[in-house]
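Section 3.1: Structural characterization of target chains.
Under the original work plan, the team committed to producing a structural model for every single-chain target entering the pipeline before any wet-lab resources were allocated. The record below documents one such target. The sequence was received from the expression subgroup and is listed exactly as submitted; it comprises 258 residues.
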Amino acid sequence: MGNPDNIHLQQAILRFNARVSPQDSITMESVLNSPPQQKSLSQMLDSFAFHSLLSSASPVNKARMLSVSSPHASSWITAIPSTRLKMHLESAEFQMAIRWWLGLKTSDASPCPFCPDLILDPLGHHATSCRHGGDVVIRHNHLRDIVADFCRQAHLSGWDRGSPAALDITVTSPLTPATLRDASSTAGAAAYAAECRKHTANDAKCQELGWACIPLAVETFGNWGMEAQGVFSRLASALGMHQGTSKSWGPPHHLQPP
């Protein structure tokens, strides 16, 4: 057992408590009786730092921070590079993606190559959502094809009670004027709004055809909507049963928009 009179331990506790929220503060007694793990202490420090930055951020940066910090949104960063699996970025591409991810400047007021009258914003919002030039269509179709491939691998022949399902990919930005206010206060607000738009547009037609309408909405920063998470969870279970392995939910690294 440690010494409660240890001045270095006392100072460490004081410095730690100054950098975490009051509910996460520790005492000499709690440290000596049940020494905390370094991982839990680091999580408390990170959480306090994150919320301190969030509270003073602009609405745009709040929306970005809430999206990038969502579960699995950062999977693309930890993916093992593989050209065979098309999970490879050139150094310049990775550097630019990281700058965009961190909210650093990605453009020096240069014009959009497809929208000559529009100057690219420093945070890269227009670059990830420009509807000219075909990039958004290519991205959409790439995500669509990956989801279809995983459905084939899982041998899914139907959805609820074997009925067909329309899995509708949609990529949305939390920085658009229509969703920024909600996205800057609630993580996943942009993805939820995109799900609602898809249901409004497609529910009636899908019901007429006897299909389930399931939007797979993902924000440009990689945060997937709740309905997509449910689909991926089901795909993971089906893949695990077919392959005889245990799989937990999480979008494949291929499915990260960056």
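The first strand starts at residue 165 and ends at 172.
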